Amino acid sequence: MNESLKTYLNLSKKIAQDAGKIMLEGYNKDISFKLKGKANLVTEYDKKTEQFVIEQLEKGYPGHSILGEEGSSKQADPNYRWIIDPIDGTTNFAHKHPYFCISIGLEIHGEMAVGVVYAPMLQEMFFASKGEGSFLNDKKLNVSTTKLEESLLGTGFNPSFPELIHPNMKHYQYFIDVSQGIRRCGAAALDLCYTAAGRIDGFWELALNPWDMAAGLLIVQEAGGTVTNLNGSQFDIEEPSILATNGHIHQEMADYFASN
Ligand code: IPD
Ligand code: CA
Ligand code: CA
User: Fold this and answer.
1) Does 22 participate in catalysis according to the annotation?
2) Which of 45, 100, 225, 247 would suit a FRET pair with 196, their CA atoms being 20 to 30 Å apart?
């Protein structure tokens, strides 16, 4: 592996592991949350964890750019951008549901180069670096080969839509009928890793942010999966929608989204 990628990957894993301890400290306490928007939760631990991650990155790479969900963004060298979601699945975290994680991605020259997603309660460390495959706790990952009618799918419902009926409901209804089921687990970064691991066969969401997707998208791609926007066009991390699958069911799902 390219030496510098290895260094970035090892640092990201170490930071994620240590950040996991901070998250668990919060998980085991009674913590309060604030609302950033309708049902969009944030806790003191989202901020604490992000602060820790940024401090660690700043020590090693003070010249790099940073995009963090909780506001720690910094525009410096545009060729190196760390994209951080300190707690993905905050609603789960605040309700003591164990499906939450930290997501750390490094984009180099506009392309994802390193991705680490760590779920501290589940003790699962997913990671990938460009060209080197994806791993879960050192076990190499491959997407599934399942076809749509036998698939288990994943999705999410960003709470920020003002409509009475969430625009994802009709897609949920459609795919429930053509698959073996849909899971809405509540942490997009982890949902992407589950796609990489073949635990689900495809995942979509309508409105995510770069920090939800950065690490997970590389982990899916390096496990042999396909990532595009919802209707099958080239993926752009600055655009909100994502369709990530095992590849086999991609066209069928993208065709549906393109016409609905
Ligand atoms: C949310 C989670 C959720 C997804 C939302 C995201 P957060 O991130 O990934 O699964 O459905 O769209 O905003 O707020 O827990 O970091
Ligand atoms: Ca998130
Ligand atoms: Ca978050």
Assistant:
1) no
2) 45
